[in-house]
Every structure is written in structure tokens, then in C-alpha cells.
Amino acid sequence: MKTDFKTDVRAYSNAGFKAIEIWLPKLKDYLTKGGSLSDAKQMLKDSGIEPIGACFQSGLMFPSGKTKE
Description:
- It is a single chain.
- By secondary structure, this protein is an alpha+beta fold.
- The protein has one domain (5-59).
- Helix content is 48%, strand content 16%.
- A two-stranded parallel ribbon has the order 1-2.
- The longest helix has 10 residues, at 5-14.
- The protein is globular and about 35 Å long.
- 6% of the residues are buried.
């Protein structure tokens, strides 16, 4: 997950995607850095992309720290 929310939306749009699952950590990072939820919604709308799901499953395959123990 090396790219940010805005970059992902642009890339999905350029690739012709019409719907995506939003990675919540990326959206949270976008909001933390000054983006607003209304801006994110407008970005998706302007790109012709419908959010159809959200995901926050982190560390499931390769846990670390206390989760790994």
C-alpha cells in the first residue's frame, strides 16, 4: 500500500474502474493530512467511481508485534 488515496483514485479512474473498495487506512491518512470527507466523495464522483466497500484488515497474513506473539 505504497500509494495514497488520491493517487489510487486517479489510477483506478485511468484504468477504467467504475467501482472500488476503499482502504480505510488510506482514507484516514488523506483526512488526517487535511482532506475532507466531502472532498473525497467529490473526487470519487468526478472520477466516475462508486465506492462499493471498505476494508481495514491489516496484518492478517503477516502479523507483527503483539499480534504475532
